[in-house]
Amino acid sequence: MTTASPHxxxxxxxxxxxxxxxxxxxILLMLVGVLGFIPGITTQxxxxxxxxxxxxxxxxxxxxxxxxxxxxxxxVGATGWAMSRTEHGARNFLLGAGALxxxxxxxxxxxxxDSAANFLAxxxxxxxxxxxxxxxxxxxxxxxxxxxxxDRR
Length: 153
Known about the structure:
The chain is mostly helical. It contains five helices and five strands. Helix 1 packs antiparallel against helix 4 (124-143), helix 2 runs antiparallel to helix 3 (87-111) and helix 3 runs antiparallel to helix 4 (124-143). The protein is elongated.
C-alpha cells in the first residue's frame, strides 16, 4: 500500500494550489488598485477623475485609470484574498472573477475608449490586459481545482 504525500496532490504550505493562485491574484489586484492612487506611479495624477473617459490618469503611463476602477480592483482583489481561504472559494473566485474580467474586456472593446459608456475609464491596454487576465484566471481555476480535497478522498 502506498500513500502519496500532500505535496504530490498540489498542497503547499498547508494550502492547495488553487488557494495559492487565488490568493496571489487577489493580492496582485489589490496592489494594482492601491498603485492607481499613488502619484508618480500613476502619471497625470491630477487628471484622475472618479469615473468616465475624462480621467486621463495612467497607471505606469500605460493603463488609463479612474478612482472607480481602482476601487473595483481593490474590491475584487480583497474578495479573492478572502475567498481563497477554502479550495471551493478560491476556485469560485478564479472562475467568477475571471469571467467578470472577460466580460469587462469585451464591454470595453465594444463601447470604445472615448464613449460616455466607458464609465470605468478603460483604454485598449486595459481591455486586452483584462481579457488575458480573465482567461488566465478561468484556466487556472479549472486546472488547479481538478483534484480538490474531497476528490482525493
